[in-house]
Amino acid sequence: MGNDKQESETEAESADDETEREGERIMSRADAAGVLREVAAGVENGRIDIDGDNGFTVAVPERFELEVEYEVTEDEAEFDVELEWQMEEGEPVSVEESPE
User: Is the pTM of this model over 0.90?
Assistant: First the structure.
């Protein structure tokens, strides 16, 4: 990896069998847009594949909760996109629409 990129990946497993994978890297808008397009295609197809040394695959159910958050402080801005669903016996479970 070149000097203009900074990468950090971690994997943690807790006592209650929870696994978390996280990656962070400095990249251009164009490169980031490419990654987001790959994630979007994976969501549409029901399977997100993350490449790399600590890569992983995520099975995505037909329906899930989507949260988008934008936070600005005096010296930093953060834009998060989070997809969330329940798991049963290691398999993703679609979220049912709640009556409103």
Answer: no
